[in-house]
Write a structure and sequence with these properties.
456 residues, alpha/beta, five-stranded parallel β-sheet
C-alpha cells in the first residue's frame, strides 16, 4: 500500500484517456488509469475501411481544452511524418482507423495508463478516508490501491432488443450479432443469402453500405440486404453550424436546469442530433442502389423505416422475424439468413460498484445523480468524489456520448479533482441562448394591432 492516488480512472476509453492525457504534467497530481483490455482499442468491430469520425479532428483527446498539449492529433501526425499528407488531403473528418491508432499511440506513452488490469471492486475505506480500488492482473494477482477520487469511464454495453437476446449465443454466433462484432464476422455475412440490418444510426448505415459493396452488381454474389429501423425515416444527423451548438457547455448547463420529465422527453425527441446518419453515408448508399438498377434491374436490397421487431426465432437455416409497422399498425413476417443489430449502446451499472451501491444516491430509475462537475451524489459519510464519463445523458443531455465535449468534460473533472483551475474552461461557447432571456426586452415590438402605425 502506498499513499492514496489523487485520482484513479476505471476504464480507458477515449474519455478517460482524454482525462489521463490532460492530467499528464499537472503539478502535484498523482493519477492512475486501469483497463482490463491488453491494449487500447476503440470499437474494433466497426473499424471499416473508408469510415470516418462524425466529429472534426479538433475533437481529439485534448485540443478543445489544451491545444498546446503534446497529446494532440496534430502532434501525432507530426510524430508519424504525416503532416504534409494530412494537409494535402484537406480532411476535417479523419479516418476512424487512424483515430484508433492515434488513441493507442497516446495510451502506450502515458505512464499513468495500465492495461491488463481488470478492476473488480471499488469500495469506501473509512479508516483511510479514501476509495479502495481492487484490480486483477492477467496472471490473476490482485492489487489494492487507494484513491481520493475515482472517475468511471467504463463505457456502455450493446443494447439488444428483447426478442433477439436469446439468439446471441450458441449456434447463432456469427449469424445474429451486434454491430460491435461486425468486422469479426464480416466475411461470413458477405457469403450469406440474406442479411437483415436493424437500426437507423451511423453503424447500421455503415454495415448496410459495406454489405451492398460486397454485391457483385450483376445479381449474383453477395447477400440480399434488408435495412429495418424503428425511426420514421433513415434521416441525416443534424449537422448545421447552429444545430451543433447543442454540443456545447452552454447547452449542458441549460439542460441540467430543466425538470426531469422535460429532460427525458428532449433526449427522445433529439435523436437526430446523435443517432442520425451522416449525409455522405446516406448519399453513398443511394449511389450504390442507383448503380445496381441501371437498365431496369431490381436492387437486391430493401429499406423499411418505421418498423419494430416484436418476435424472433430460429427458422430452419435462418430466422423468422415478426415485425410491426409503427405508423400503420400492421404486422408482417420475414425470413432472413442473418441479423446484424445496429441498435446502439446503453449505460449499465458495473458490478465493480456493488460495494458502493448503498452509498450512492440513485435516482428513481436507478441512475446516477450527477452534478455540474460530473460528480455523483454520494452519502455524506463519503469524503471522496466519484465522477462519471458518458453515463449522464439523462442529466446532461445528448452531448454525453459525443467526442466533441470529451476534452471539455475531462478538463472540468480535472479542475474539480485538483481543487483548482488546472485548465481554464470557457464560460460561453454558443451563439444560441438556450432558454428565456435573463432580462426583458427594453423596447418591445408594437403589437400586430398597430401594424398600420408601423407602416406609416
Amino acid at each position: 500500500m502506498t499513499a492514496p492516488y489523487d485520482l484513479v480512472g476505471v476504464g480507458i476509453g477515449p474519455f478517460n484517456l482524454s482525462l489521463a492525457a490532460l492530467c499528464d504534467g499537472a503539478p502535484g497530481l498523482r493519477s492512475l488509469f486501469l483497463d482490463a483490455k491488453p491494449a487500447f482499442s476503440w470499437h474494433p468491430g466497426l473499424l471499416l475501411e473508408g469510415t470516418v469520425l462524425q466529429v472534426p479532428f479538433l475533437a481529439d483527446l485534448v485540443t478543445m481544452a489544451d491545444p498546446t498539449s503534446r497529446w494532440s492529433y496534430l502532434n501525432y501526425l507530426r510524430c508519424h511524418d504525416r503532416m504534409f499528407p494530412f494537409f494535402f488531403s484537406e480532411r476535417f473528418h479523419i479516418p476512424r482507423r487512424e483515430y484508433d491508432h492515434y488513441c493507442r499511440w497516446v495510451a502506450d506513452r502515458l505512464p499513468s495508463c495500465r492495461f491488463g488490469a481488470e478492476v473488480v471492486a471499488v469500495e469506501w475505506d473509512d479508516g483511510a478516508a479514501a476509495f479502495a480500488v481492487v484490480y486483477r492482473s492477467a496472471d490473476g494477482a490482485r492489487t489494492r490501491v487507494l484513491a481520493r477520487q475515482v472517475v468511471l469511464g467504463v463505457g456502455t454495453t450493446p443494447d439488444v432488443p428483447e426478442p433477439l437476446r436469446p439468439l446471441l449465443t450458441g449456434a447463432h454466433v456469427g449469424r445474429v450479432l451486434h454491430s460491435a462484432d461486425y468486422r469479426t464476422h464480416r466475411a461470413g455475412l458477405a457469403a450469406a443469402d440474406d442479411v437483415t440490418v436493424i437500426g437507423a444510426g451511423q453503424s447500421g448505415a455503415e454495415v448496410v453500405l459495406d454489405l451492398l459493396r460486397r454485391q457483385d452488381g450483376q445479381g449474383g454474389g453477395g447477400p440480399f440486404v434488408r435495412w429495418l429501423a424503428r425511426t420514421p425515416a433513415f434521416a441525416p444527423m443534424e449537422y448545421s453550424k447552429i444545430g451543433l451548438e447543442h454540443f456545447t457547455p452552454d447547452y449542458v448547463r441549460y439542460f441540467r436546469g430543466l425538470p426531469e420529465a422535460t429532460r427525458e422527453r428532449l433526449v427522445r425527441e433529439q435523436w437526430q442530433l446523435y443517432k442520425g446518419v451522416s449525409g455522405e453515408t446516406l448519399a453513398d448508399i443511394h449511389d450504390e442502389l442507383y448503380e445496381r438498377t441501371i437498365g431496369g434491374a431490381e436492387p437486391r436490397a430493401a429499406l423499411h423505416p418505421g418498423v419494430e421487431i416484436t418476435e424472433a426465432s430460429a427458422d430452419g437455416a435462418g430466422y423468422l422475424l415478426t415485425c410491426r409497422h409503427r405508423q400503420q399498425g400492421t404486422g408482417f413476417a420475414l425470413r432472413t439468413s442473418a441479423v446484424v443489430l445496429a441498435t446502439g449502446y446503453a449505460a449499465a451499472r458495473p458490478a465493480l460498484l456493488d460495494p458502493l451501491a448503498d452509498l450512492i444516491d440513485w435516482d428513481a430509475k436507478g441512475r446516477y445523480q450527477v452534478d455540474g462537475e460530473y460528480r455523483v451524489t454520494l452519502d455524506p459519510r463519503v469524503s471522496g468524489s466519484l465522477y462519471v464519463q458518458n453515463a449522464e445523458t439523462h442529466t446532461h443531455g445528448v452531448g454525453a456520448p459525443d467526442l466533441t465535449l470529451g476534452a471539455w468534460r475531462a478538463a472540468t473533472i480535472l479542475n474539480a479533482a485538483a481543487g483548482r483551475t488546472v485548465l481554464p474552461v470557457p464560460s460561453r461557447a454558443a451563439w444560441t441562448t438556450f432558454g428565456a432571456p435573463q432580462t426583458a426586452l427594453a423596447d418591445p415590438i408594437p403589437a400586430f394591432a398597430h401594424a398600420e402605425e408601423i407602416h406609416r
